Amino acid sequence: MTIVKTTIGRRSFLKASALAGGGMILGFNWLMSACSKPEDVLALPKEWFELNGFLKIGDNGVVTIMSPNPEIGQNVKTSMPMIVAEELDVDWKRVIVEQAPLNTDIFTRQLAGGSQSIRQGWTSLRTAGATARQMLREAAAAAWQVPVNEITTEAGMLHHKASNKSAGFGEMASAAASVEIPKEVTLKDAKDFKIIGTPRTNVDGQKIVTGQPLFGLDYKQEGMLIAMIAHAPGFGLKLKSMDGAEAKSMPGIKDVFTIKTYEDDYARQWSDVSAFPELVVVVGNTTWEVMKARKALKLEWEPFGDHNESYSTFQGGSEDKKVPGGLENSNKHTQLMASLAAQKGKVVRKDGDPDAAFKKAAKVIERSYTAPFLAHNTMEPMNFFADVTTDKAVLVGPVQTPEFMEKSASARLGLPLEKIDIQMTRMGGGFGRRLYGHFLVEAAVISQKMQAPVKLIYSREDDMTFGTYRPAYHAMYRAALDENNNLIAFHVRAGGIPESPLFANRFPAGSVTNYLAEEWSQESNITVGAFRAPRSNFIAGAEQAFLDEVAETAGKDPIDFRLELLERAKSNPVGEKNDYEPDRYAGVLELVREKSNWGQETPGVYRGVSAYFCHNSYVAHVVDLMMENGKPRVEKVHCAVDCGIVVNPIAATNLIEGGSVDGIGHSMFSNITFKDGVPDQSNFDKYRLIRHREAPKSIEVHFVKNDIDPTGLGEPPFPPVVGALANALYKSNGKRFYSQPFIKDIETSSMRM
Amino acid sequence: MAAINITVNGKMQVLDIDPTTPVLWVLRDHLDLVGTKFGCGMAMCGACTIHIDGVATRSCVLPVSEVADKSITTIEGLSEKGDHPVQKAWLEHDVPQCGYCQAGQVMNAASLLKDNPNPTDEEIETAMSGNICRCGTYVRIKAAIKTAANSSNQ
Ligand code: FES
Ligand code: FES
């Protein structure tokens, strides 16, 4: 039993108030219940009673739960309301889920990123449900003149056993709305959970499979115009001249002009990254007319030189960030990274005396790993709707950071924050791309100029060549073994363009007496941004492939080797800042070992193992490869996960499957390369994303069972699978793979049949 | 501009339209049928899959002039009540993550099952390889297609 104070969250609760029916904005098709089956359509209550900002109860017992966070496919729109419903003790069939608008007075952290929605929302969501439940109990106690602690609840009903009285939540909702908000409430024990831990299908499932308007790109308003942009074709280029006369004269075209996304004296927020802050805009009636007119633009571009961009700091000031001039090339990047990796980097962590240990080592292994820039390529390209008038701005669309972008729009439009109304649509993928909401500001600026509602649409090419990529990375590892094959020193030197992927305090830090972690970085005008499991998405695969090779050199089983190190990190840790729990780390390795029957050799099946900890969750993978027509194909992925309590197992499993496919796909097939600043890939003809026939044939997911507060799953399943894949590839042809995308080396090497 | 007759989800429509307009944008901009999605605009992702006379077709590269007098089915018209065996199987397997690719996946799968009511795994993979799912729901898509095949064959 956990008692939590509601006072912490009090500021975030609306004053409890009775709300007459029709007082809320209702989404289309909102009457569909959480079960999403037509026969479960719920009857409309005559009156709603809002007990706090998270939920309202109808007089007929139907409950609307607001889902506060942006939905990008991580399924928070189902899982977060499940947590509220659990503590409220309502029947899930009687729940309607609505996407909450951006409202920082009620909700905290309305952001999708870092796999933090569930972890950071856990207590506030539970408190919201428990608070409403407590208010209902108090209302019933007053009505029945019995002590409140004798009132029990079950599936949307209030009971008083001794007097044999019962009432539905709906009957008590009106009275509950005027009960004072309790100072503290009791949360359920995990063993009493009825909704959390049970599989609940996607609340929007039916709408998705019937093609209803859910996404930003689907949003429409009377009189809405369509806008598209043209940005510089490459990094390091800016607009030299524009002739839009012909485009403007084409049918359906309203205007052609240039915009600046941000004013010159504006200090950008971190979420304002944009490589192309000056854009050419074409506005017209329909998408096709605008697409055609855009092709008729006559645009000239020229290289820019070194200059600065101003960014706001978390302390409230601002600092200049250099944007180097020049047109960059991928082959130069490769050389540059190799030469920087050969020099000493900045020491981030040092334990013991690595130099001495390497000198006296019986064996030293040194390997280097690389990975290219990647584009996020959400299936739904960037887009946003804006209707900006002189006194307010309505902005509707897919963005992961509405709290931040509200401020950017306010500054750019010259409207106070409270006049900026951001509504969140379902997002056709995020993966980090929609943390950077320049497109929201662009749409707003275009609408303000046109004095009309406008929907801005990026083509796939605009989207893929706009930047905010996953950086290009390089990691050099060295390991020292003594004559008994004990790991006596470990050295990592990692860097990237323009950022390093290093996490100095993660495993194997803490498990080796002599440890050195260095990093470096190289500036670039190619913009980068968080990409599903930032930094981990590369460094995990590199490290786990390296450990595999060290284990092999030491003549040890790769799982035993890791467990030995984790045992050392637990019983006799080196250093103090080790950023993982050795027991939970070992736990997923042991579980995957058991579930995959590790050690059992099957002819024709090549296996690799890997494990990683990031974003507060632990994941281990075993990848089984088979050869198909001379090419490796993932037959099966075994996955063990420790994310604490699993809120919604069916959605969690889906997300882990997806993350595993994503990790395999990107490390195997994808890259963005540059020639004179221009990306070589701009659509799916050249940019390879994993497809059905390349995807794992099956994926098995296993959870470590415990009662630890839940942690996220959007990111953790991606990083380790890359290492497991690399290790399995090695088994399949006896050659190690050091550079992503692996397909390049696979195609040039002769695979064992 | 030209007058073109098309039949969408059983309803005949007369459009006065630029005949080069891809069917995708006719559906989305002119007919308010936004279930058919834009993903690449070059027939590489499958998000825009519709049926032309029952055959799965990428609508993003198909000029409206080419479908005059043909019968188009979109995701909105695949079934009246949203209960096509493929749609039901999709819900049963809880396939969607972000959901953006799924209308195209469902349309492609429905067309596959019409041609081949009992596809093997390999046939499913081949037939579905033109439809990208960036969220990686491939394993579930395959399972759902098998469920739909079984339920249709009963
Ligand atoms: S949008 Fe038509 S195939 Fe991608
Ligand atoms: S479910 Fe997101 S792209 Fe397929």
A few lines on this structure:
Chain A is an alpha+beta fold and 753 residues long. Chain A is built from 18 helices and 32 strands.
Structural description of this entry:
The complex is a heterodimer of chains A (753) and B (154). By secondary structure, chain A is α+β, with helices and mostly antiparallel strands. Chain A is built from 18 helices and 32 strands. Chain A starts with a strand and ends in a 5-residue tail after the last helix. Chain B folds into two domains: 2-77, Beta-grasp domain (Ubiquitin-like (UB roll)); 85-152, Orthogonal Bundle (DNA polymerase, domain 1). Chain B is globular, with a radius of gyration of 15 Å. Chains A and B meet through helix 5, helix 7 and helix 16 of A and helix 1, helix 2, helix 3, helix 4 and helix 5 of B. Residues 38-41, 43-48, 58, 60 of chain B line the site of one FE2/S2 (inorganic) cluster.
How would the blueprint of this fold be written?
The complex is a heterodimer of chains A (753) and B (154).
Chain A: E1 2-5, H1 7-10, E2 17-19, E3 48-52, E4 55-58, E5 63-67, H2 76-88, E6 95-99, H3 117-144, E7 151-154, E8 157-160, E9 165-168, H4 169-176, E10 184-187, H5 205-209, E11 225-230, E12 237-243, H6 245-248, E13 253-260, E14 278-284, H7 287-295, E15 298-303, E16 307-312, E17 318-323, H8 330-341, E18 346-351, H9 354-360, E19 363-371, E20 383-388, E21 393-397, H10 402-413, E22 420-424, H11 438-450, E23 454-457, H12 460-464, E24 472-481, E25 487-497, E26 514-521, H13 536-553, H14 558-571, H15 582-595, E27 606-614, E28 617-628, E29 631-642, H16 649-669, E30 674-675, E31 678-679, E32 698-703, H17 718-733, H18 743-748
Chain B: E1 2-8, E2 11-17, H1 23-30, E3 49-52, E4 55-58, E5 71-73, H2 85-92, H3 102-115, H4 121-128, H5 138-153
Helix pairs in contact in B: 2-5
The structure holds FE2/S2 (inorganic) cluster (2 copies).
